[in-house]
Amino acid sequence: MESNIHAGADALTVHDRDQVATALRDLSEGDTAWIRHGETLISIKLLGHVAFGHKIAIMNIPKGSDVRKYGEVIGRATEEIEAGMHVHIHNVEGIRGRGDKTTQEEQR
Predict the structure, then answer these.
(1) What CATH number does the domain containing 75 carry?
(2) Are 86 and 49 in contact (CB under 8 A)?
(3) How would you write the pLDDT of the chain (108 residues) with one tens digit per residue?
(4) Total domain count for the chain?
(5) Per-residue buried b or exposed e for 32-57, using 16+ beta carbons within 10 Å of the residue's own CB
(6) Which DSSP string corresponds to 38-99?
């Protein structure tokens, strides 16, 4: 079985629609993180500390927009999220299991 994880990446995405990457190690504010996004290796300057296993925005995400990881919506941005920011409960609200926050299409 061939691995899709390439040496040298600090974080990776799983799906080409992902807006966030998962940190493969602790990363510090000001670091340049190398992120595997599909076949591309992109670099993003971190705007804050991101702990191992946590999410990093790989693009700007407007307030109120859906946030995607694994190609699926994992929540909604509660504030403007800039590329390089830590993405977690302080700036994303979960919508799964909340009938008042899901659309008809998401409920299917």
Answers:
(1) 2.30.130.110
(2) yes
(3) 344 444 679 999 999 999 999 999 999 999 999 999 988 999 999 999 999 999 999 999 999 999 999 999 999 999 999 999 999 999 999 986 655 555 555 544
(4) 1
(5) ebbbbbeeeebebebbeebeeebbbb
(6) TTEEEEEE-SS-B-TT-EEESS-B-TT-EEEETTEEEEEESS-B-TT-EESTTTEE--TT-T
pTM assigned to the model: 0.81
Across the beta sheet with 92-93, the strand order is 66-69, 72-77, 92-93
Residue 107 falls inside a structural domain: no
Helix (H) or strand (E) holding 106: helix 104-107
